[in-house]
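Data availability (excerpt). The following record was deposited with the supplementary files.
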Amino acid sequence: MPSDQEDRKSHNKLADWRDSCLLSSFALFLFLFRCLIYFRAKMNRLLRIFLIVVLLALSFMLAVWLNNDHSYTHDHRYAELSLMAGMIPEEQKESIVSKFNGSSPLPPCPPTPPGLEGPLRIEFEWSRSMSDVRKASRENLHEGGRFKPLDCISRHKVAVIIPYRNRKDHLKHWLYYLHPILKRQQVDYGVYVINQHGEGTFNRAKLLNVGYVESLKEYAYDCFVFSDVDLVPMDDRNLYRCHGEPRHMAAAMDKFGFQMPYKNYFGGVVALSREQYMRINGFPNNYWGWGAEDDDMHRRITLKGMAVSRPDSRVGMYKMVRHLRDTHNEVNPQNPGQLHNTARTMDTDGINSLIYSLIKIEKDELYTMIDVDIHAPN
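Predicted structure:
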């Protein structure tokens, strides 16, 4: 069977031959027409009729040839592909372009990544600098903390969203471990750090809503992992991707003795698909200070008829970077009382009522930092 490259060469040779014939026919048409004009007086009637018939036949052939447009080559197809680009899924674009370049298209990544290591040794070396993190993590990363596998087309487009304020040391540890893990998991991902501007009361859930909106402005993500900056997975088989049900990934944290603190706990690190997130109207916006917003999320999920899935506790182990409670993120005793109203408020308090002001976006090679004013109370 001829290769794509051989087929392309033969197609171009045929196109060149047709173009030559077209030019030759046009030149013959002009020559005969000039003969008819200049020598008509010396021609007998039968010869003039013959030339007129030949000219009419050539005119008809040229018209048919031009109408069929035999000059339609691969270059024209590339032009049409560029016009169609907006209507073709991204993974299919790569396959189509590969075919026309004469190379084999990238296959889909396997459902289970082959390079996983399993249990990991996690140590928070405080002497580790951001420069050390960059050297260890920058390979194949694109600006803004973006990555795609080089040898296959990822099945998962994931935005990893981190609520943030004044946690440089924690972010350093998170980046050091998570970039290599996500690369091994063959995820098409981006890291978004959502910084709360100012010193007002912290609102974790509202920042996560902002991350959802802002990440979708950059890329067509279909999965969103919402992660605290102080939590690092201890097993790379805990896949950062979405499932058929909302996923509570931090199923066993060292903070709680690698057990669930209570049955309906849905905090730390969670994953929701775009459809799941919109179905529950995202996170609530009205939980200021520490506590209860993750319980509200669990209620939203169950109220919409979904269940929470979790990895096996041995795979879902996380290590927390130890720290003191942040200033302006103290326990808010009013937050638990809002849980009684979740069924009534969830359709109006969430992504559809999100209000914030974008301050600036900074693109680091390891992450995208989005600085926002969420109009926090003092």
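Summary of structural features: The first helix runs from residue 4 to 38.
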